[in-house]
Design goal:
six-stranded mixed β-sheet; about 350 residues; 13 strands; Phosphoribosyl-aminoimidazole Synthetase, Chain A, domain 2; 2 domains; alpha+beta; 60s Ribosomal Protein L30, Chain: A; binds magnesium ion; binds adenosine-5'-diphosphate; seven-stranded mixed β-sheet
Amino acid sequence: MSPPLSSLGEFGLVALFERAAQARHPATRVGIGDDCAVLDLGGLERVLLTTDLLLERVHFEAAWLSAEDLGHKSMAVNLSDVAAMGGEAVAALLALGLPPGLEVAWVEGLRDGLVGCARAYGLELVGGDTVSAPGGAVVCLTVLGRAPADEVVLRSGGQPGDRVLATGPLGDSAAGLHLLRGGGAGLAPEDRAALLLAHRRPEPQLALGRELARRRLAHAMIDVSDGLVQDLGHICERSGLGAELDADGLPLSAAARRLAALEGLDARDWALSGGEDYRLLFCVPGGLAAEAERVCRGLGLEAAELGRLGAGRGVRVRRDGQVSAPADQGFDHFGPRGAR
Ligand code: ADP
Ligand code: MG
């Protein structure tokens, strides 16, 4: 009997397709395995292509996320992948599966969130598809972007000795999810509002990604969608390197720290393996780290230096004086936290 998908995990499953997709079209510069595919259609620019699927009950509970938040979020998570390549977003296609009993007002909310986010980041909804989906809402968005050919930043470009930087705060989205699951009784209303906003309304860091790429400050880059450990792990794997992360240097918000204290939890876990922060994680040659930090500050963002790329394989975390390879590698759709 063929083993179940859960034995492969999400990444083993993607690898099934990656291995089969080897007959490359001459336009394919980067195929499966980065935040966007990179295509060469001629000229000095590269085309960036990415898609993300959000499913009711897997990615969102209708009661936790308004339709407008969901529209915003589905656009934002795609734009975050374009940001991670150093690109600019151009156009989006929206594929919708909707239960026939859904209220029109819900779809109008979804539209407003989606189109509002697109407008804020300068791209346009240019098409899509709509079908009936009795089992629950399905929102699949595909975004096309572009970047100058010599400025595209891949996961695979990391060099030994590169400083690993990330914009913060990290972990707020997972802290917000903790609140939605019923935690956080007694948390101050302004902390609650800030953490829920981080979960519901992530903002893609397109301006930062573009600026780091234009100034050639990043050897490698990824957006933090599945937790810092897992996402840095992707850079390590694609760059053939290892990394050490300093958990004491994590950019945690005061609100997340206060929630963790209240619950007897460690906010560092939300940053390391929580996911859905949609901040950028990038690897900068040692001599350029100060300039990269200046670029972040110029855009009103704070960058934290979290460690270095080096020899070896995988991500080790230095925490309270101990170095270890973390057991919780972040979100896996076919792993224990993903299966529902
Ligand atoms: P991200 O979190 O940046 O959206 P994912 O972890 O979802 O990236 O995907 C990792 C890589 O695998 C990406 O390059 C993505 O395009 C590719 N991928 C995911 N699912 C499939 C699939 N079913 N077929 C082909 N490629 C896939
Ligand atoms: Mg990504």
